[in-house]
Design brief:
It is built from 3 helices and 2 strands. It is mainly α and 100 residues long. A hairpin with an 8-residue loop joins strand 1 and strand 2. Helix 1 packs antiparallel against helix 2 and helix 2 crosses helix 3.
Length: 100
């Protein structure tokens, strides 16, 4: 369980999704299951409010998280956005692993 602290002002930044929709907030997610549940709630709120950008962001993030969970059934930790990205795009340059 932890907070992602990446913002320039020292606060926490939630990031992710292929759409690049960023927002500052404090997040503490214990497991991938919790993250998926929270994203489903946020998606429902965004859809109810007619916020299409947020809805697309959370739908995209959910798709990645659910795919990650399918590929790693025994792993319950909340993956980083890079882990999800590399799971979906293993041939991407930023995901390559080189042996020295």
């Amino acid at each position: 369980m932890g907070t992602i602290d990446l913002s320039p002002d020292g606060g926490s930044k939630r990031f992710g999704g292929r759409l690049g929709y960023d927002r500052y907030c404090e997040i503490t997610v214990e497991s991938i299951e919790t993250h998926i549940a929270k994203d489903r709630e946020e998606l429902a709120k965004a859809q109810a409010n007619g916020d299409q950008a947020k809805a697309r962001h959370f739908a995209s993030e959910l798709e990645g998280l659910e795919s990650y969970r399918e590929h790693h059934p025994g792993d319950h930790k909340d993956p980083t956005s890079l882990e999800v990205h590399c799971d979906l795009n293993p041939d991407a340059p930023e995901c390559r692993i080189y042996d020295d």
